[in-house]
Amino acid sequence: MPNKELLLIPGPTPVTDEIYDALSSETYAHTDPRVVACTLDSLAMTRQMFNTDGEVFLIAGSGTLAMEMAIVNTVAPGERILVLSQGFFGDRFIKLAESFGILVDVVASEWGKRVCPATVRLKLESAKYKAVTITHVDTSTGVLADLDTLVPLCKTFGALVILDGVCATAAAPEDMGHDYGQGARLDVVLTGSQKAIGVPPGLAIIAFGPEALAARAALGKVGAYYADIYNWLPIMKDPGKYFATPAVNMLYAYRKALQIIHAEGLGARYARHSRVAKAVREALRLLGLVPLADEKVAAPTLS
Amino acid sequence: MTFRKSLAAKGVVVAGSLASLAGKAFRLGHMGNVEVAELRRAIALIGETLGEQVVGLNVTAALAVFDAQSRQ
User: Fold this and answer.
1) Tens-binned pLDDT, residue by residue, of chain A (303 aa)
2) What is the number of CB-based contacts under 8 A between chain A and chain B?
3) CA-to-CA dists, residue A107 to A81, A189, A290, A298, B20, angstroms
4) Within 13 Å, how many C-alpha atoms sit on residue A94's CB side?
5) What DSSP assignment string belongs to chain A?
6) Is the pTM of this model over 0.95?
7) Residues paired with residue A192 on neighbouring β-strands, in sequence order
């Protein structure tokens, strides 16, 4: 199916024929061995993409569901989180967390700019935070978060680092094995299918590293049912088991998208995004347009 | 808003902006499996659409820069 329009909004993004073909393949039972194999394949390739041995979950839902899962499975009501916001979607964590009785402090930047690390440090010194949320690329402003500075800073104060990769995964490095300094690593990475992964909307994707899983264990009970990773853990281990019906056709499409991503190579894909983003902005500047974000902090995924 | 409508009529869909930026900016996605040739076409059509309101835009120069910088 050739796309009739050129869809250049920051998600959903243009879907290739291969992915449409996978998406419109015959629907089998969610417990069918072929669907089980597709799910296991997809989980393995997701682990590869995030470079994690942790637990990965593929759940029918939007990016916001993944945000909710990240928070409710790591933080208890009454505990405090620090939201680092560089736009509308950074801000989204505030209401989301407060819905669960979690206390929220915020460090927000002016739209188009990054948060000030010195301000973040002062905040981290002022209170005990269970977790800090970082929006890798905020879809509202096109600002790319400075993970190299923020991740080790947050880990120094013992907080879990939750990375919202919805508008960044498969376009910018999200390496849960990467040591940002003194053992500082990403604890949770969450994303959605409909941006740089190249699949239509419909899958929430989230990975929990060892410290995040330990946090879930310590919580015991959580104030969620569909979003509780403990309800999904047995399913992700054996997709032939049932908790709630998975988005079967979305998984076909997602597997195909991951194959495409790994065939390109993560490094090559990240480099392509960075190069093309700069080229787009340079060309648009020549047309008299001014990007909101300074080139130093501008995202590889949207302008 | 007329800009985005005009551009959409030419077959390119871009996004408006949120909150305090509404009406003042548009957002352009350039991620995933979108092809360089498609982005080039979008730049040409953005140039054409802007040219309906602004004189003296050098779309050729913009495309040349895009071609040079998007190359590996």
Assistant:
1) 778 899 999 999 999 999 999 999 999 999 999 999 999 999 999 999 999 999 999 999 999 999 999 999 999 999 999 999 999 999 999 999 999 999 999 999 999 999 999 999 999 999 999 999 999 999 999 999 999 999 999 999 999 999 999 999 999 999 999 999 999 999 999 999 999 999 999 999 999 999 999 999 999 999 999 999 999 999 999 999 999 999 999 999 999 999 999 999 999 999 999 999 999 999 999 999 999 999 999 999 999
2) 140
3) 11, 20, 26, 19, 19
4) 12
5) ---SSEE-SSSS-PPPHHHHHHHTSPP--TTSHHHHHHHHHHHHHHHHHHT-SSEEEEEES-HHHHHHHHHHTT--TT-EEEEEESSHHHHHHHHHHHHTT-EEEEEEPPTTSPPPHHHHHHHHHHS--SEEEEESEETTTTEEP-HHHHHHHHHHTT-EEEEE-TTTBTTB---TT---STT----EEEEETTSTT---S-EEEEEE-HHHHHHHHHH-S-S-STT-HHHHHHHHH-TTS-SS---HHHHHHHHHHHHHHHHH-HHHHHHHHHHHHHHHHHHHHHTT---SS-GGGB-SSB-
6) yes
7) A204
CB contact under 8 A, B34 and A13: yes
Q: State both tokens at B27.
A: 């957002």
DSSP line for A208-267: E-HHHHHHHHHH-S-S-STT-HHHHHHHHH-TTS-SS---HHHHHHHHHHHHHHHHH-HH
Q: Are A129 and A157 in contact (CB under 8 A)?
A: yes
Nearest CA in chain A to B51: A287
Question: Is-contact A275 B72, C-beta < 8 A?
Answer: yes
- Asked if A6 lies within 8 A of B30 by C-beta distance, the reply is no
Close Cβ partners of A256 (under 8 Å, ≥ 6 residues apart): A18, A19, A21, A22
Most A-contacting residue of B21, B31, B58 (CB-CB within 10 A), to test interface: B31
Chain B residue with Cα closest to A266? B32
Tokens standing for residue A255: 């597997």
